[in-house]
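Students often ask why we bother encoding 3D structure as a string. The short answer is that it lets us treat folding as translation between two languages. Here is a chain of 229 residues written in the first language.
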Amino acid sequence: MATSDGAAEMARLAGALADRTRASFCLALLDGRAWTAGELAHRAGVARSTASEHLDRLVADGLLVEERQGRHRYVRLADADTAELIESLSAHAPAPSGAPASLRTATAQSALQRGRTCYDHLAGRLGVTITDAMIERRLLDGWAVTPGGMAWLDDLGVDVRAAHGSRRPFVRRCLDWTERRPHLAGGSAAALCQRLFDLRWVERIGTGRAVRLTPDGRRGLSAALQREL
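And here it is in the second language, the structure alphabet:
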């Protein structure tokens, strides 16, 4: 008997991610940027035609959206909610067993653990540490920004008004994939992340998701949070 409880839709969504190549595409796109089909194919080690088939499935199921510029097809995660779903699923997955296949892989994994972007906000040890410090300083209370927290964001030059004006929640709790603890997400976290990039307190490592504090960022954030980072 047919039902309307959403089971079929949930099964289809799970099926869209139940493939290693498609999952690797979604994880790569957690950097918040648009990738070409060729770039994703190269990352996953599959033919471009194979990548296109997988991307068609992810777009059809609403996990990705596509844009075309001339001959190029770009894809990105559909929205912040999709990114948080992918990050949360990663956090619930069993930790990888065995040693990394190479020194390069081990170095990349270590960088992601230290700090990375989760779509448009900070994650990894850096994101969790900032979140913990904000809670300790009572800038966050029960996953709500306190009046003191609003003043703190404003003092940093974060565009709080724009973050409040967007459709997405101002604050969300996102389970961190590597730390297995929550970090700050939502409009406030995205605006804070962008401000830290603008200040050059945070910078990307290479072309992936990994980020690090710059010397100015370590000094500035340590002073602002009253905690050594």
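Translate back mentally: The longest strand covers residues 64-69. Keep this in mind for the problem set.
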